[in-house]
Amino acid sequence: MPPPHAGNAATVLVIDDNEANRALARHALEDEGYRVNLASGGAEGIAAFQRERPDCVLLDVRMPDIDGFAVCELIRALPDGAETPVVFLTALRDVDTFDRALRAGGDDFVTKPVRAAELIVRVENALKLRRMGAELRQHYDALRRQRDDVLRLQLQKERLLTFVVHDLKNHVNGMDLHAQLLLRDATLGAEARRSAAQIRSAAVQLGRMILNLLDISRADEGKLVAHRTDVDLRALVGAVTDEFAVAADERRVTFEIALAADRLRADEDLLRRTLANLIENAIRHAPRGSCVSVKSSTNAGGTEVRVGDAGGGVPPAMRERIFDPFVQLESEERRPTRTGRGLGLTFCKLAVEAHGGQIWIEDANPGAIFVVRIPDAS
């Protein structure tokens, strides 16, 4: 289908000091029928604008001679510059950069890496806006301000999340370190030693929750990637069950380990935290004196790991929703039957999907079995 400007091809000026970025923009736009002019710096871009009078400008922020903010302000002062849409392209995903782009006169703000399809949509929207009448322009400006407010809140949330995760990790690591020092004290009494072990277990679980929160945010941005290595599954399961030995002992829960598959290629950290979340969840819902099972098998080009308990189970209608954030299941009498710790199961789903895999729930009769399938790396 021809682009909306076919027959009267619009000209787009791309100002970016990175040759690869310029090439990507040029190929994407020319494939859609646009004329494209390229400039490798701010001064060259201003000269090209005066010479070509483009219909739209794609403008990088960080350039060695004149930064994008200054270039935008200079373009706005040129003839036709006030009406030409300027779309900022930047790898700087923060609210300060966003606000500076708006103050400089930018019409849109796209963070790198930019997908070709998104670039085309943003350029077409910018050109449509230029053709709008004054009344429609006012409506659009109101919508754009709302969009800008939402994006600003998103960027502020990301910055706050980064600060919170960093600060919390420092304190949690300190708690864990002091608990380890107490456990190394040979003079410590049995009851105090047990309390120190509980403190360490809680610190490790809190640290995992913090990392889960960070990875869920990364997944929202498409940045959660599984880096596969050869993983000793037996050793990994042993380490995770050891981590929960104190919690299991308190509930008199035992572990049944049956691993037909000993090794697989996976992201060891993501897999460790996935199993930790599932085993913690199983211990929490297992009846006192019961068993939590961890089993594995290989079939049809992948490895399946099953974590089961004999608790209340998960109704079939709720087996998809339980992976949503902060879900609490209720019985027919409206009493909670199974609760999450906020984001643990959400993280599990995202971590498994980062491997190209799947996670689902089966009946244990009684109880529930969480099944993780990791496909072969090939």
Can you summarize this structure?
By secondary structure, this protein is an alpha/beta fold. The protein is built from 11 helices and 14 strands.
Care to describe what's here?
With 378 residues, the protein is α/β, with parallel strands linked by helices. It folds into 3 domains: 11-131, Response regulator (Rossmann fold); 155-220; 229-375, Histidine kinase-like ATPase, C-terminal domain (Heat Shock Protein 90, 2-Layer Sandwich), CATH 3.30.565.10. The protein is built from 11 helices and 14 strands. The strands form 4 sheets. The chain has a 5-stranded parallel β-sheet with strand order 2-1-3-4-5, with helices on both faces. A 5-stranded mixed β-sheet has the order 7-9-10-14-13. The longest helix is centred in the middle third of the chain and has 50 residues, at 134-183.
List the helices and strands and how they pair.
Elements: E1 11-15, H1 19-31, E2 35-39, H2 42-52, E3 56-60, H3 68-76, E4 86-90, H4 95-104, E5 108-111, H5 116-131, H6 134-183, H7 190-220, E6 229-232, H8 233-243, H9 245-250, E7 254-259, E8 263-266, H10 268-285, E9 291-299, E10 302-309, E11 328-330, E12 336-339, H11 344-354, E13 358-363, E14 368-375
Parallel strand pairs: 1-2, 1-3, 3-4, 4-5, 7-9
Antiparallel strand pairs: 6-8, 9-10, 10-14, 11-12, 13-14
Helix pairs in contact: 1-5, 2-3, 6-7, 7-11, 8-10, 10-11
